[in-house]
Amino acid sequence: MWLKPEEVLLKNALKLWVTEKSNDYFVLQRRRGYGEDSGGLTGLLVGTLDTVLDSTAKVAPFRIIHQTPDSQVYWNIACGASLEEISQHWDWLQQNITRTLSVFDSGEDITSFVQGKIRGLIAEEGTSASDEEDPERFREAVLRFERLFGLPQREKLVTYFSCSYWRGRVPNQGWIYLSTNFLCFYSYMLGNEVKLVYPWDEVSRLERTSSVLLAESIRVCVRGEDHFFSMLLRLQQTYVIMQQLADYAIVRFFDKETFNAEHPLANPLHITQRALEIHARNQSFRAFFRLPQEENLCEVYESFLWVPFCHVNTLGKICVSENYLCFASQDGSQCHLIIPLWEVRILQIFLQTAKKSVIETALEKKNQAVSTEALMNVFHPHDAENLDPKMLKERMKEQSWQIHFAEYGRGTGMFCTKKTRDLIVRGVPETLRGELWMLFSGAVHDMASHPGYYGRLLEECMGSSSLACDEIERDLHRSLPEHPAFQSDTGISALRRVLTAYAHRNPKIGYCQAMNILTSVLLLYAKEEEAFWLLVAVCERMLPDYFNRRIIGALVDQAVFEELIREHLTQLTEHMTDLSFFSSVSLSWFLTLFISVLPIESAVNVVDCFFYDGIKAILQLGLAVLDYNMDNLLCCHDDAEAVTVLNRFFDSVTNKDSPLPVTVQHASATANDKSIQKVDISNLIKEAYEKYGDIRTEEVENMRKRNKLYVIQTLEDTTKQNVVSTKAVLYFNAAQLDELYMLFKRQHFVSCYWSVCSPALQNHDPSLPYLDQYQLDQSQFSSLFNLLQPWTTHTHARSLARSAFRLLDENGDGLVNFKEFICGLGKRTLTQESFTEKLKFLFKLHLQPVQGAVYKSDVFCPSGRAKVDLQEYLKQWQEDLQRREENIKDLPRINQVQFIGLTKTLYGVFHGDEEEESLYRAVARVTSLLLRMEEVGRKLQESSPQKMPQNTPTSTAQPETSPTLPTSPETETLAEGEGDQPDSPVSQQETAPSHSDITPTSTSRPSTPTSSPTGTSSPVLDTPTDTPSSPSTLRDGDWSFSFEQILASLLNEPSVVRFFERAIDTDSLIAHARKNQLKDAH
User: Which pLDDT value is given to residue 1019?
Assistant: First the structure.
């Protein structure tokens, strides 16, 4: 049967295939072990390989591969179970394809034509390129997936494959399961079980690699550890799906991108392989043709386009979306065309009417305050009578473009060809620059589909105030200050409006430095509304993730730049072992498109190329700059010398054909230095295209995806290392702190795995200091706290976690950051061997919250997006940790219901311990002792009221019956689950599970109130446990205990002291939490 063309790197992979027939374009092969040599050792070995290494691939014994002429790349296009079947395919190729291929000049064109024909045959047969999944078989795989890995049933399995996992040189044959949030692998052979479960959000590297042992494999790097997976077939399909799932995790969890309800990836609980393919196809379609984000690819057809200027038919594909009909020739660069459907002549009557109404609406709503002229036309109007040589060259450029327009069309329906690129490289005329920027960037489509949008934005943000507005005002006069347009209110006002409108449109980005410089240049050549849409195209489509606080997009492209340096400038790579220098020095190149390092008259030529070819043009120019200065860079001994070399080079770049007046052109420091050779920007750009023009846009996009994982995980690792290096090591060692941070971070993501647009995602803010970046709400905290707390409290677990959250949330924002979490966990529970500290922690859990309390940590917990001095922040926090020692005398007293809750918690803590019985008896004795002390104190106070100081409150007469016991929401939750409390081995008189049981062991208590040593009277506790109560019923006569009293009583019980001073195995608790964190998410 015909197969979707899939690349095969080795013609005779592992010598498993034998050639039967061949010609210049195709090869028919038979797999060893089948046919004539099916018997013997060879047949057994090949059969074993097919069974063990890839049991589900069902390797066909015959296949046909297509060879790209003058290349070592082969494409698998057909397979067959018998020689007769494969021979039919071979004969068809000989009769219908082979003769046609001889007319093509390029090997790439031949391969593209063959691929198109094969896909057409598959479409005609009504079969898909890959095997259709058997529903029953897939359901069985889902059941295995749930049973093997213990993940929640909500986790959606996308697909699975048979593969080998390599540990060293030993393969483990098993199954790889790809789900929405996890990469899983399972193998069990000869008693050796291998089980892997890794979240996609922890993957830092994902790439195809090859080695001496393995022809090709997929490398997955998680937390610095490499894992290799190999398979004989479907390797590319597996890799693509893994890449899509990893990218989906990045988009959801780090970019916090949301999808509308109709989007195929809107619901993570219903992700399918087809949904991933549709999303990837739409993305590629929009990126290639620079269309609005709302456009989705509907249909694709292979066709020939009649090209009038060449008088030939060009083979390519027609791509149809809701509003556009697009064509791209087979190689993607020869010719492409975009036709808005409302301009198609066959629909002229209807669409002209619709278009007219749109234009009229736009004119009616036009804001008169908006500038309708490019600033260059206002401050430097075109002089048609100027016969200056530079102006004559400018007119020649204009004539070349007018001839191009006459031949290839103008506007949205223009044919874009190699000739168009050649004209771009030579430089765009000043008068056409704004028009062509709009066309090539796709901003013209955005503006056409959103009439009046910019004016409405200005009305909405009129008079608004925000942090972005303040930053914009600060940078307005730093934007091209040497240009007259921005020395006047006209230019400054237009710049303010565009930047403010965009900040209002996209608050996720708001305003970022470098946007002002870019927008200034856009305003010089485009009208104000056009400049706004150009900025939208750059920030949201052409340079994604560039303009945010972590400039992830720029860092990704710098990583791509490093890869290209290693590939194309090997001499420089050998000289400089650390290429990170080029990343740091080239950051401004990418952020400002060379505008900040080149004179404005030269920089605009770079912007011309950028709008036509995207980031590929910037990468090419960067390589050309380094190549031009290769000799000087090889002589440098340190980074400072290299920076000087590059700065002097940029100062020497000129634009000899620029018609701009001298007053506008940038005066470099070397302008009058005749010893320095000048470099014309047009020649530099031409050299960049000649040397590095073979870099393909698709290749750059794949490198971007691959490096985005690495960049994000590197930033996350930097955050983690900064956390580990703090003085929190007072409580934990570095390895423990590392694991705790990963548990804390994973808990944040686990709660978001199975939610659509989970609000918890907003609790991650990379702009905050790194100790505060991840925060957990009460539900997230409770799950993690119960996994890490060292005591088994059973029914009290939820209430204790709730109280611990309230205690640790010192700034009262309803969130606990890692700093608060680690302080509470280390200082109060896991690492403390002090009996007093642990008891104090339990004591404070049962106190009612103090309303309006202000804690010291408020001073050191910055919030919002204000800039923070991280070193000062850390210094203050460390000092706060060292001096924050609570005096036990400052603790408030605990009332009767809170004391009952504390007693129940102690019973829960002791449950299951080997000394459980003695611990129960100890708590009963302490409880009885404290109540007796309270009773004796009341009797003494009652017998000698005249000796009491005047300022000591005296008890008032109380009725014979006991008052209603007070409770609070906190104490009610602490007392919940009372009926489920495990039975104590001691007698009822020595246990205290209810209010009425807290009485002296053998003495009946009087009904009359007595006074305590502190002057607080206490009634008898014979109220039923189900008596309704509320804080409003608290009376002055209710008794209470201080922490000192409880501590002193418990210190007399050696078993209790031994229990709390017992060393806690922190590593075991962390390992337990790591193992059960996902199970706890059920």
Answer: 34
